UniProtKB/TrEMBL annotation:
Gene3D superfamilies: Aldolase class I. SUPFAM superfamilies: (Trans)glycosidases. InterPro entries: Aldolase_TIM, GH, GH114_TIM-barrel. This is Glycoside-hydrolase family GH114 TIM-barrel domain-containing protein. Residues 10-104 form the Glycoside-hydrolase family GH114 TIM-barrel domain. It holds the Pfam family Glyco_hydro_114.
Length: 130
């Protein structure tokens, strides 16, 4: 599995469309909102794409929202359309999260990142400075 080296230039973009004019090696993008075409363009240029999914909150604007059992969906977290998830209940959340983390593969993404309520759970690279 590919993993970026420390210091690899990257850009975290959750907006649609992704601004591919940002000169970085890796784009970390919204895995649900962006289609395969968005992933293919940077890859043709030799860049990598990581799809970001939120594992700490249920987002009403994403297709997996209805899959979350009511008993694990909590109060709003301050972001429009998002509600906290009770991550202590991995026994209930595991299958939904597994589906979400695989959404990137058919699009050609390198891997999925999981911000978990905006907190990274994977190796964090330094910002590209711009």
């Amino acid at each position: 599995m590919w993993a970026p080296a420390p210091g690899t230039p990257w850009d975290w973009q959750l907006k649609v469309p992704v601004d591919t004019s940002v000169d970085v090696l890796v784009y970390d993008i919204d895995g649900f909102e962006n289609g395969a075409d968005v992933v293919r363009e940077p890859r043709r240029e030799g860049r990598r794409v990581i799809c970001c999914i939120n594992v700490g909150a249920a987002e009403s604007f994403h297709p997996d929202y209805r899959l979350f059992p009511r008993e694990v969906v909590g109060k709003g977290n301050g972001w429009e359309g998002e509600r906290w998830l009770d991550i202590r209940r991995i026994d209930v959340l595991g299958h939904v999260m597994a589906r979400a983390s695989t959404c990137a593969a058919p699009k050609g993404s390198t891997r999925a990142s999981r911000p978990g309520g905006r907190v990274r759970l994977r190796h964090r690279l330094p910002a590209h400075g711009g």
